[in-house]
Amino acid sequence: MSEALFPTRWKHDRPPSIEEFVAAFPDDHACAAHLARRRWPRGFVCPHCGHPKGWKLETRPWLWQCASSKCRKQTSVISGTIMHGTRVPLRKWFLAAYLMATHSNGISALQLQAKLGIRSYQTVWLLVQKLRIAMIDPDRSPLTGLVEVDESSIPYRTNNEPLTGGQGKSTVGKTVLIGAVEKRDGRTSGRIRLERIDEDTREHIRPFVLENTAPGCTLFTDGNKAYVGLPDRKHVPRNLSAKNALPAHVTFERIHRVFSNLKRWALGVFHGLREKHVDLYLNEFVFRWNRRRSYWSSMDTLLGIGQRLPRITRRDIVGDTLQWKKDHEKQILKMVGKERLLKAQILAVEGKRSVIEALHMLPPEPKERKYDRERPFRPVLGRPPEGERLIPGRYRHPPRPSKAEMELGWLRHMRPAATQVAPF
Ligand SMILES: [Zn+2]
């Protein structure tokens, strides 16, 4: 394919095409081989005994077995990556990372679900959140040179409500953000950092700046006193409220471009961010910005290759939510019998405790007795004739009508109403 087809932006590093991806990762074995190459660039080395030979298991390509007859231990190439403990096939993970890394705006879990062909939305959502966690390398280096720092706020939405930006509604509000960007030559920007803070006050702003900028850099900020006197950093404050001051988006052009891009991205791709997961979405935005010109390496980062991540579970991301607990309690109450529930409710009111707690205090229900033919659980139809043994479960027909009765009934049914004779 001719290089002229690609826009200048991708002259040097364009995202891999779908064909290239399919050729590189045709199946789980190819994905496992890629992980093994990244883990052992010079060939397999057993992490338990240091033996230099081993082989891949054919049925589970992510497992390697040590060839030493004394060791024989198995090593997983997905441990320490984002895929640790997964049941989703490796190739789906790779495909998800490919789609996440190559879409310039990112992709929502709902869209990814259809593309990956995974039935459960929960599974895909968790997969995407894990990819977002891997986006931030814990060992990344702080920003250097000329750095613009400013605060902003972004509206968030709750569950399925539309985004309103906190106009008199208690459930919808705004999150305060702080951001920093490297100023490069001309109008270009370097790497960025974004973080959610509780308030734009001194005790929240200063830790962010100290953590994310290197000593010796020059900070460009507004007149906020929180930035004054930070150690080892040159400070250039601009008073935006002065009479002849330029507007903020001109003075702090770069950081304001970051904020406005972030807001448009949040609205366009996700229709607004949820407050609970704002940090993960910020991770994704920062990742996209900083890696916007290197696609293959960003796929490795997404999968957590070479990051030595701890194993992340659903509970780590979602937390033990109150709603989950409530639903669980409802289920328990549904399973309890009426009498037992009433007893528990009385106990709960008396002792000022929850019904669930009271249920635990009640003595266990007596075990159901074994089935006995002579004493059936359900009442039996029909009364046994005098002196006859009761046979449970046997259905007795009502006495059969006589022929005359049958005819009478038939006639009564068929006779037209008009010809009926009045009784007087
Ligand atoms: Zn070994």
Can you tell me about this structure?
By secondary structure, the chain is an alpha/beta fold. Among the domains are: 10-134, no CATH class; 146-277, Nucleotidyltransferase, domain 5 (2-Layer Sandwich), CATH 3.30.420; 326-361. Helix content is 38%, strand content 12%. The strands form two sheets. Strands 4, 5, 6, 7, 8 and 9 form a six-stranded mixed beta sheet that branches. It has a three-stranded antiparallel beta sheet with strand order 1-2-3, with no helix packed on it. The longest helix is centred in the middle third of the chain and has 18 residues, at 253-270. Zinc ion is lined by residues 46, 48-49, 51, 66, 68, 71, 73.
Q: What keyword list fits this structure?
A:
Nucleotidyltransferase, domain 5, single chain, alpha/beta, 12% strand, binds zinc ion, three-stranded antiparallel β-sheet, 38% helix, six-stranded mixed β-sheet, 424 residues
Brief characterization of the structure:
The chain is of the alpha/beta class and 424 residues long.
Sheet/helix structural class: alpha/beta
CATH hierarchy: architecture of the domain at 146-277? 2-Layer Sandwich
N/C terminus separation: 106 Å
Give the helix tally.
15
Helix content: 25-40%
Q: Please name the CATH topology of the domain at 146-277.
A: Nucleotidyltransferase, domain 5
CATH class of the domain at 146-277: Alpha Beta
Order of helices and strands: HHEEEHHHEEEHEEHHEHHHHHHH
Poorly predicted spans:
166-172, 413-420
Give the overall shape, derived from the CA principal axes.
Answer: extended
Name the ligand types.
Answer: zinc ion
For the largest beta-sheet, the strand count, sense and barrel status come to: 6 strands, mixed
Radius of gyration: 35 Å
Mean pLDDT: 78
Strand content: 5-15%
Q: Please report the total strand number as a whole number.
A: 9
InterPro entries: Tnp_ISXO2-like (IPR024445), Transposase_Zn_ribbon (IPR024442)
Region (Disordered): 369-400
Organism: Consotaella salsifontis
Domain ISXO2-like transposase: 142-290
